[in-house]
Amino acid sequence: MTLAAQAAEPVHAAAPAASLVQSVDWLAVAPPVVAAVAALLVLVADLFVREGRKHLLGLGAVAGLVVSLAALLPLRGATRKTFCLVTDTTVCSYTVDRFALVVQALVLAGALVAALLSLTLTKDDEDLPAGEYWFLLLSSAAGAALLPAARDLATLVVALEVASLPAFALVGLRRGDRRSSEAALKFFLSSVTATAVLLLGVSFVYAATGSLHLTEIATRLDNVPAQLDTLAQAGVALTLVGFAFKTAAAPFHFWVPDTYVGAPLPVAAYLSVTGKAVGFSGLVLVTVVAFPSYADVWGPALAVLAALTMTVGNVAALRQSAARARGAVRLLAWSSVGQAGYLLVPIAAAAYTSDVQIGSTVAYALMYAVVNLGAFAVAALVSRTRPGGRLTDYRGLYARSPLAALALAFFLLCLAGLPPGIIGLVAKVTVFASAVDAGLAWLAVVMAVNVVIALAYYLRWTALLFRPAPPEAPEKASAPEEASTPEKASAPQEARARRALPAPLGTAIVLTLVAAVTLSGAPQLILDVLTGSLFQ
Questions:
Q1: pTM of the predicted model, to two decimals?
Q2: Which of 414, 419, 420, 460 is deepest in the core (most CB within 10 A)?
Q3: DSSP per-residue string spanning 296-329
Q4: Residue 477: pLDDT band by 50, 70, 90 thresholds?
């Protein structure tokens, strides 16, 4: 039942604004709403929970994300629409179709793994306020879950900012850490610039079409008056630039390395997967759903961006020094830029064929999310005993922790697209095929060259895991009087505690490893998203 049906009859009959009254399907909006409610509950509970029991807030956040994921189950099957215009129920602001459902599952699962990694972080790091941390993470996850179902530009921008604004604070939340503050500032300034450009593009599109709904824009762009055609083209171009910032496409990628390095590891993992999925979801919606009439504008532009992004990311990752502090995270950051280039290829291909090509982007995003979160989880484990985060710290990891080394090796091989990481190979083949099918042979060649470049740094890191560890200098014997002090006596206990594998961290590694192995054994689970259009 619509809200208009509950209003007084004279008002409904006489008010011309009745077309703005919208229906509400609470089951359809449940996933982002549950995450948002969980965020508010955690924030309120933080006022009453004693300092020694703050870990309960993290457990509550994890439970909220699990319930949000469970809320997706009843949505399988038919497309559901809500917040529709009374005068035209086919024009809606929120639609749960196959595309929205898959991306919502991706972002919420990514947030859940990041939350598992954060349980240990918030417990060990006293500089992180637990209540604020969990509130910001859940708020960002709620915005991320809202965005793929948004079907008007206003909802799209609001969802993008709800997902982005808490992420700024998450990056700079660690008190007294200058590197964290600098990363948050750079992330904030770049994102504000992107938002300004995006809003300018949206305003131009609205001026040219008179509508904010994506399907209405698509219809009206077919018949834009000649005097407004330049305005419409400028709006399309500026909107693409705004989302290019969000997706870290070159040359709008400069914020990524420093942001990932300065952020806490779970936050960097969250940004690399959920943040990227948000940007690509918005880009897919505005290009394929709203701007199909201007495919001759955004198709070639995205193809060039894809080639530039994958090349810049992979070449920069190849040049990373193994002895540089936080080099492992920096390499993963540049790797994520390179992977963004692969994700752009099917979107560009859709301009030359059909929206069926978008399935390749979604399939690749699912593979990337699983293995990249796994790599960050192992990096979080290694950082407990070697906080420097250098690539050389991973030398001899197999001797110290065989299971962690094997898991990281498998994740890296998936990213490289080498057996036994079959799912990585399958995902790359689907992206490559989308470029060939669209007649973008030059882009397929550029992708093939970049895959070879990426092999070098992925295999170099993998080889380090199994090389003998360098001999360590023997520790100086402590004087008897020093060993008798409480501080010195507790040091070995603290070292043993840091070497122990926390249950949440172990759970995150196991979940991502099981998912990656399962997908490699049965890639059809992901390939199913390639069949037919996702927007139905």
A1: 0.89
A2: 414
A3: HHHHHHHHHHHHHHHHHHHHHHHT--TTSTTHHH
A4: very low
